[in-house]
Backbone:
């Protein structure tokens, strides 16, 4: 798979590290209990279709990216800087 970094251009995905879903998760309170922490850490949706993921370009410019991709076709629809999205 290839990703087009907004700063560096078209790159092999091995330059990037997948960091999970781009949506924010509500972190439980430290004393929330084992069952709630287990769900937070391990029970995540695995949707088929379009998703937004957070990737880190560690082998390049060091930018955090939001990648919109299809989990069925592996097609990458968009890549944007995470800071640009958070600024709007």
Residues:
């Amino acid at each position: 798979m290839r990703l087009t970094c907004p700063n560096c251009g078209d790159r092999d995905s091995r330059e990037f590290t997948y960091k999970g879903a781009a949506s924010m998760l509500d972190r439980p309170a430290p004393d929330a209990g084992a069952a709630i922490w287990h769900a937070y850490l391990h029970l995540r949706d695995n949707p088929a279709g379009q998703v937004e993921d957070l990737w880190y370009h560690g082998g390049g410019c060091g930018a955090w990216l939001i990648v919109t991709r299809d989990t069925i076709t592996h097609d990458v629809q968009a890549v944007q800087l995470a800071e640009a999205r958070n600024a709007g």
